[in-house]
Design brief:
heterodimer, A: 207 residues, alpha/beta, 4-stranded parallel beta sheet, 8 helices, 32% helix, B: 5-stranded parallel beta sheet, 5-stranded parallel beta sheet, 16 helices, 31% helix, binds iron/sulfur cluster
Amino acid sequence: MEPFTTLTAVAAPMPMQNIDTDKIIPARFLKTIKRSGLGVHLFDPLRFDKDGKEKPDFILNQEPYRSAQIIIAHENFGCGSSREHAPWALLDFGIRCIIAPGFADIFYNNSFKNGILPIRLPRPVCDQLINDAKLGGNARVTIDLAGQVVIRPNGEEIPFDIDPFRKHSLLNGLDDIGQTLQHGAQIDGFEARRRQSQPWLPTTTAA
Amino acid sequence: MSASRPRTLFDKTWDSHVVEKLPDGTCILYIDRHLLHEVTSPQAFEGLRMAGRKLRRPDLTIAVADHNIPTIGERTATKIKEADSRIQVQTLEKNVVEFAVPYIPILDVRQGIVHIIGPELGLSLPGTTIVCGDSHTSTHGALGALAFGIGTSEVEHVMATQTLLQNPAKNMQIDVSGTLGFGCSAKDIVLAIIGKITTAGGNGHVIEYTGDTIRALDMAGRCTVSNMSIEAGARAGLIAPDQTTFDYIKGREFAPKGEAFEQAVTYWKTLPTDTGAHYDTVVHLTTSEIAPMVTWGTTPGAVVPVTGIVPNPSDEPDEGKRTQLNRMLEYMALAPGQAMQDLPIDVVFIGSCTNGRIEDIRAAATVAKGRKVADGVQALVVPGSGLVKRQAEEEGLDRILLEAGFEWRDPCCSMCLGMNPDKLTPGQRCASTSNRNFEGRQGQGGRTHLLSPAMAAAAAVTGHLTDVRQLV
Ligand code: SF4
């Protein structure tokens, strides 16, 4: 996973609530066995008409937002299915950070696992950032993960919260599995205790 | 940990699965059951392979193909017509061999939607942790399991370690009291809940459903309620195990038998929430707030009683919300003030992990009996599993439905999300017993109204959204 340290980029304003995962990447694009290549289908229902032509009024079809790496949205971003294809599509398009008043839980988790930083900020702050973002290409937003601040184009710093474990993993691009496997002995111990205390727990191999 | 602190069902299940608490509070949580399907597993298997890692506990894992399987015609992986669907199923079949994961083949009578077959086969048990790369894993919480959906990276994490890195969720209690009104079902309960707390209401929480209305539900109804916890924003929804649960589990294929079953029940009886345990959020609902419900918009929270009307966005003070409401009306081709019951229907879909159980098919058949599907309406009944299908046929429900003009299909997710050929065409309006009415969910440009199986059957025979109470 690519580490996330600081990012200065164009931010796309998407002042909508409940941007669900079916909007981010519809089910018909889930029939892949790979993680890459989904960026062309990102936000398909919002981005393209039924003939596959770009809808000119959609933000990511406009300059300079075609190269946006940050999205600023309203409440409950990423609600719906658990499909990790949603962060894969965002990442493949180039998005590394999403700022919103709130995220659906599974999407929030999935983002971190793919090197995307979801930042929760109060709605009025998001609205302010959305207004900044509407100013276009010169109004770049900076994210400083180590310092835990979003820096507005005018230099104002807005602090944000993040769980320390996730921050550490993201800053260093660490893979969770490798970290957990270091606790293998504890997992072995847990399994042994469980066989004792709940011997009736069935396996899937012996019905 | 002090034994005296009163704990919730969630707290108890969580505590008993913590392998280790890391310094920052993140927990390594042990997973008892890992369910796999073809859509969210290929990249995880690929990840294991690339890292040269083993799948730690194939004997706690089970796989089934459910999303891409055709509901008519030949049902073997090689015969699936769409190349991408076929490749996904074939990839699963290859991976289960390579990693020695137990697999329920497509032609096995036990094949079905993963959230139907877990409880049905006795794989989903109280007080266990169950995960699947699928948000409706919340379904299994109906049996008192802590069950939640995970992303593909987490699927890979469970494969490699049989654990997940998790932070405890907050406890939410949703208490429902009263006798369910005539013509109402579990689906109406959960739609009313989502309407009340909104689709973000449960974010960060695990819901426990309590109250006499919930207690009175059979296991199918409890599954329907837990299933849609995710639509209320919660990752998991639990219902405390009781005699209904024990009776349901007893004798199922993988469930503990004999002496082991008695031991298990003794343990399961310790699971319900202690008196005085703390819930971070409490919501009360009475059955007077629940009527046969139907959604009008493109989020499950956009719901009204079937006797209601389409709301007017100009009544909404918040600009963002108003914009969203307007967009929903435009997509759904609805006007403010329109009566829900006037809406003509093109397609009816009865099935999915929300409502694809035998009880759901019985409810639909009761309404369909002696009636005919309205002209111009296509009505699909897709049982949730091969076992459900077999049982329905033994009860003669297939004949009732076929005589009424419904189509009787083979088990799969089908039109719930249209990954197989069952999908809406642009502009079609569908009365659906599934769980999501997002734009394009059932097919590009399709318009979905969520409702109960009885209500779906009522819409099928009248050709428009209908208050089922007028038909039974
Ligand atoms: S029936 Fe629908 S919601 Fe359930 S697992 Fe299948 S696609 Fe997902």
